[in-house]
Design a protein that fits this description.
CATH class of the domain at 54-124 in chain A: Mainly Alpha
Number of strands of chain A: 3
Distance between the termini of chain A: 31 Å
Largest interface: A-B, 61 and 60 residues
Largest sheet of chain A: 3 strands, antiparallel
Shape of chain A: elongated
Oligomer: homodimer
Structural class of chain A: alpha+beta
Amino acid sequence: MTHQTVGHRPRPGLPDDPRADTAAPVPSCPVEITLAALRGRWTTLVVRELLRGDRSFTDLRRALPALSDKVLTDRLAQLAEAGVLTRHRLPGRPPRVRYTLTPHGRDLGPVLQALWDWGAQRRG
Amino acid sequence: MTHQTVGHRPRPGLPDDPRADTAAPVPSCPVEITLAALRGRWTTLVVRELLRGDRSFTDLRRALPALSDKVLTDRLAQLAEAGVLTRHRLPGRPPRVRYTLTPHGRDLGPVLQALWDWGAQRRG
DNA sequence: CTGAATCCCTGCCGATACTG
DNA sequence: CAGTATCGGCAGGGATTCAG
C-alpha cells in the first residue's frame, strides 16, 4: 500500500517512526523543538561562538559586529530557554556575565555538523 | 587566547573549521543553505512524507489536511529550488504530478534524524 | 557592561476565490 | 487534479534610545 516505486523494504529511522506521524507541526515534536532552538537569524552563529568556549556579552558583540544588542539579547534568552546555555554573573565591577553552553547545548555540535555536511554537498 | 575554561585541546569539527568563520549570516554558508531548505512551517513534514515514497499533490493534502494549497505549493517550489525534490508530470487525464526526492533530498533523512535525536533528549 | 523599551518595516502564512 | 491570485494579520528583526 505504499507509494514506493522501488522494491526496497522500509528502512529504519525517523520517517518510519510512528511518533513522527503528526498531521500538523506540533511544538512537542522533537524536530520542531530543535528547529525552534535554532530558529531565527544569527542563532547558529551565536552557538558556534559558544562551542569555541565561554563568552561575555561583549565578546559576542565583537565576534558578530553586525548583530544588534536587541537581537543578541533575544537570542541569548531563546537559547537559555531552550536549555542550550546558562548565564553566570561574575562578581566585581564592571558587571560581567559569562555565557556557557550546557551539556545539552554542546550536543548541538553534531547537529550543526549534519546541517553543514548536507549544505556543503554539491547538487547536480 | 581562547576563553576555554577547561584544558581540552580544540576538538576537530565544525566550530574550528576556518570556513565556519563568518561574522554574519551569509547565504553561502552550508548551515544556512540547509536551514533555508528546511525553513518555514510544514516543510519538514512534507519532506517526511516524501521520505516514505513518491506522492502526488493530493496525496500530500490528504496526509497534511491542515496545510493550505498555497503553502503546499510554496513548499514544493522551495524544496525543488533547493534540489530536494523533482516534479514529474504523468501523461493522461486527469493530469497528475508526482513529487520525488532527489538523492540529495534523501540525504535529508540523517539530518532530520539528528534534529529529532537532539530534540528528543531530556534536559535537566 | 549588560541589557530593556520602543518604533517601524518587512515577509511569512492562512483564508478565500478563481483557472487550465 | 493541480495549481494561481489576492488580501490581511501577525511576528521577526533592525535602529535607536534609555537604564541598572
